[in-house]
């Protein structure tokens, strides 16, 4: 009988003390009430700027199209690597009759140049922004005897005329 009385005491004491979850709910409810009184808006308003998957895909498609139209210096490193791979596979392999080993060593050489920031400027590469294709790398020279590509040391002499701009005099 004494045990039954203790169980009843424990049950009655546990119901009067709120659990941490109930305490959070009470605090949240009082916060909601205060917010409603002060602003006239409740906290339970739904979020209106949520988008569905189709809208997100359309946004990403337009961003990728916009990024393709950027000049060489504004492309990310990943995009530059992709463009260099296409240039080696499509243009240089056909132009110089490269085999797989030579083209893979050329790609490694170009990656190394990209890491050393030797082919980052617009005047070093002829890049078509509309098509997204590299047309020529000016600082890259091919030695037909050794069948290797080298870096041209006379970078300053190449394409200076392309960089020149005319200044207008304001009077």
Defining key terms:
53% helix; 171 residues; 10% strand; mainly alpha; disordered C terminus
Would you give an account of this structure?
The structure is a single chain. The protein is mainly alpha-helical and 171 residues long. Among the domains are: 7-39; 75-159, no CATH class. The protein is built from six helices and four strands, in the order αααααββββα. A two-stranded antiparallel sheet has the order 1-2. Helix 4 runs antiparallel to helix 5 (100-115). The longest helix is centred in the N-terminal third of the chain and has 20 residues, at 20-39. It is elongated, with a radius of gyration of 34 Å.
Give the neighbour order of strands across the main sheet. Answer: 1-2
In terms of quaternary structure, the protein is single chain
Helix segment count? 6
Element-by-element helix/strand order? HHHHHEEEEH
Structural class: mainly alpha
Strand percentage: 5-15%
**Rg, alpha carbons:** 34 Å
Mean pLDDT: 75
Q: Can you give the helix content as a percent range? A: 40-55%
Are there runs of 5+ residues with pLDDT below 50, and where?
A: 5-14, 161-171
N-to-C CA distance: 109 Å
**How many individual β-strands?**
4
Biggest sheet layout = 2 strands, antiparallel
User: Shape, please?
Assistant: elongated
